[in-house]
Amino acid sequence: MTFRNRALSPAELDRFGEELDELRKRTVATLGQRDADYIRSIVAWVRWTEVAGRGLLYLGAFSLLFAPVLLWPACVLGALLLGLSKILENMELGHNVIHGQYDWMRDPHLDGKTYEWDIVGTADNWRHTHNFRHHTYTNVRGLDDDIGYGLLRIFPEQRWRAYYLMQPLIAVVFALLFEWGVAIQNLKLGRWIHGKVSHRQMWRMFKPVGRKMARQIVKDYVVFPALAGPFFLPVLLGNIVANILRNLWTYTIIFCGHFTAEAETFPKECVRNESRGHWYLRQLRGSSNISGGWLIDVLSGNLSHQIEHHFYPDVPANRYAAMAVEVREICKRYGQHYNTGSLPRQFGQVVWRIVRHAFPSRPRRTAPLVAAGEAA
């Protein structure tokens, strides 16, 4: 049963925002060595799981010379470990560092403005499409490009078109190639296809993306397999599997954080003269958490706490679990639903949305952010 959020008066919205601001202030004041040690331990895990994974892929490849029975066990375990490294680098390291969560450490290797991550998309494009547009205009139709990523109709408020009938299949392909979708998101290819962007402009925008794509392709699909010589195929396949595992996992976590049954979208008008409390409330109603404990937290980059991440994107994500206790209590006091559930439950709702809204559907009625008759 859907929770009925209580509409808040402007005064309540202000107090709601002030309490959440105060929580951020108290948390930031306690940042220190423990947080630095944590992110450096993640760096070490990324490095050594990659070394182990690639090492096992080579062991499996060269085992064809002396012990063919080792081929599949070594390659499967190697691909899994390499996939784990890529997941940790993408989610808990790259995503959070690029948000500037560790800029206070003054470590040039963990600088949010210069960090480059291990996917085909550039960190610079991500800083614009994600850090700025998505986190500023979360789930605002026409401003947040993450709503369906220009491919999918996730919410009934999105205009239906006949090609959405294919979106269950498109969603699967998108999941498998998720890093590539992220890479081209900022290019807005639709504008180029419809002649709103010239070929020269598109080429200028594509060049840095193309260079990054080429580097990743050469690294994962040329250099590392070539090191195995005539036994390159198991290494190549291991790299492909590792990247697909990372793509499927990041797709699942991101979609569970934004597109569950109770997540809402908003019209552009809602951001006009938006107060701090109003911004927090919009983030809350457009976000979903995933329960599951420490392992899910780490593997998801703590995006299992998507609500807290949308509230505090520049606070180290390892703090979200503790902050969530108080955030949940604040939401309860103000009559606001704190959307959380297990990974199977949340992803089941995502799949339902993708299938349901492939067909025409009417916009739903949701509670207003501000009490009726009161200005925001």
From TrEMBL:
Entry-linked InterPro entries:
FA_desaturase_dom, Fatty_acid_desaturase
EC number(s) per UniProt?
1.14.19.-
| Record GO terms (molecular function) | oxidoreductase activity
Kinase keyword on record: no
Task: List UniProt keywords, sorted A-Z.
Answer: Membrane, Oxidoreductase, Transmembrane, Transmembrane helix
CDD domains per the UniProt record, alphabetical: Delta6-FADS-like
* Stretches assigned to the Fatty acid desaturase domain: 71-340
TM segment ranges = 56-82, 162-182, 221-245
The protein's enzyme class: oxidoreductase
Its recorded name reads Acyl-CoA desaturase
